[in-house]
């Protein structure tokens, strides 16, 4: 018998998506994680040029070494209270794939924590909160050091309509 064969096809696919290295960051009291392969760079806060008639969570655009990148505030996207930016507030530049198009987007977070190596067995499915709440952007809940970190599927945080709107912003 082949020792590399997965125990079940369903778990095998999930493990490939969720286990591995994650950049963790905070929003309020919660810690979130994004797959490290989606992270292009972490930068301090820059001057953000606002763009009229965009959703509240879209802060505007930045010029990053000649590239115009849309920036969104993840607190506002997640319907959290807006707070003033501090010296720990930063922008994580991530690569998002939607409809076979790759887009660079900056996300504003309260602070970046660390890179964690998370094993598949330490990750549980996202809880279901009922039909009203969309949690498809949550890969799972990682149990590490007595706490829980919410692992995000950054490709699904924004809807395809929101992404196409950001494309027109930049």
What's the CATH topology name? OB fold (Dihydrolipoamide Acetyltransferase, E2P)
The CATH architecture name reads Beta Barrel
Q: Poorly predicted ranges (pLDDT <50, ≥5 residues)?
A: 1-16
How many domains make up the coordinates?
Answer: 1
Alpha-beta content class: alpha+beta
Shape: globular
What is the share of helical residues? 10-25%
The proportion of residues in beta strands is: 35-45%
Strand order of the largest sheet: 8-1-2-11-10-9
Distance between the termini: 53 Å
Fold and architecture overview:
There is one protein chain. This protein is of the alpha+beta class. It has one domain (21-169): Beta Barrel (OB fold (Dihydrolipoamide Acetyltransferase, E2P)). The radius of gyration is 17 Å and the shape is globular. A hairpin with a 2-residue loop joins strand 6 and strand 7 (101-109). The N and C termini lie far apart (53 Å). The protein has a six-stranded mixed beta sheet. A five-stranded mixed beta sheet has the order 3-6-7-5-4. The model is unreliable at 1-16 (pLDDT under 50). It is built from four helices and eleven strands, in the order αβββββαββββββαα.
Keywords:
single chain; 170 residues; alpha+beta; OB fold (Dihydrolipoamide Acetyltransferase, E2P); 6-stranded mixed β-sheet; 5-stranded mixed β-sheet; 4 helices; globular; disordered N terminus
Brief account:
With 170 residues, the chain is of the alpha+beta class. It has four helices and eleven strands. A six-stranded mixed beta sheet has the order 8-1-2-11-10-9.
Secondary structure layout plus pairing:
Layout lengths: L8 H10 L1 E8 L2 E6 L3 E6 L13 E7 L2 E7 H4 L12 E9 L2 E9 L1 E8 L4 E2 L13 E7 L2 E6 L1 H4 L2 H10 L1
Parallel strand pairs: 2-11, 5-7
Antiparallel strand pairs: 1-2, 1-8, 3-6, 4-5, 6-7, 9-10, 10-11
């Amino acid at each position: 018998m082949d020792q590399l064969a997965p125990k079940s096809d369903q778990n095998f696919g999930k493990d490939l998506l969720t286990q591995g290295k994650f950049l963790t960051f905070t929003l309020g009291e919660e810690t979130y994680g994004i797959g490290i392969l989606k992270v292009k760079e972490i930068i301090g806060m820059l001057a953000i040029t606002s763009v009229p008639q965009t959703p509240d969570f879209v802060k505007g655009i930045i010029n990053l070494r000649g590239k115009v990148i849309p920036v969104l505030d993840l607190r506002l996207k997640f319907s959290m209270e807006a707070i003033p930016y501090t010296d720990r507030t930063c922008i994580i530049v991530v690569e998002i794939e939607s409809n076979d198009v790759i887009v660079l987007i900056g996300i504003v977070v309260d602070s970046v924590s660390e890179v964690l190596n998370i094993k598949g067995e330490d990750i549980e499915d996202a809880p279901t909160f009922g039909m009203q709440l969309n949690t498809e952007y949550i890969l799972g809940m990682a149990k590490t050091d007595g706490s829980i970190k919410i692992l995000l599927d950054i490709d699904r945080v924004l809807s395809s309509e929101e992404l196409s709107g950001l494309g027109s912003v930049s």
